[in-house]
Amino acid sequence: MASRFSNVLAEVDANLATTVKCDFDDNFDATQTKRITEHVKSIDMIEKDVRAKSKALQDIQQQLKDAKSKIVQRQSDELAEKQDLQLLEEKSVALKAKEDEIAGKVETLKQKKCDGMSSDEKQIKTLETYVNRVGQHLGLSVFKPEGGDSLVVLKLTNIDKVDPQRTFLCELNLEGSEERQWKG
Question: What pTM, to 2 d.p., does this model score?
Fold first, then answer.
């Protein structure tokens, strides 16, 4: 931009050097005065244009500086965010490793607990787990009503998908020695 401005000034200087020639001799007439006046007016117009373009150039340079500073600030912000993100990812990986370590320890403890049980206890534990899962799926709850020593009631709440408010009850009456037989 500055070199173009210099080229325009050089061209104006060259034009002025060739056009503003006057001989101040005895035959200096009014046409030469008129021509000089026109050249002075054109020089004034060129100077005004140069000043306006110089001001516009300064404004553009200031806008460019402002834009560059905004870009530098954005780059700085992005770099800080990238560093924060990297730190969070590192912490996430560390937490995942810690979680895996704890899950391994829990599994080891479960295995040790199961290893210490007899086969009957393992079978009971497996059946209890199965009953709990089925119970959760069907909304099963087991309770003994008051005054019914040998009576067990099963309440099911998740059977009818169309009418989820509907509940089903199943009463079991335990009989026999040690109440091991049941009648439904």
Answer: 0.35
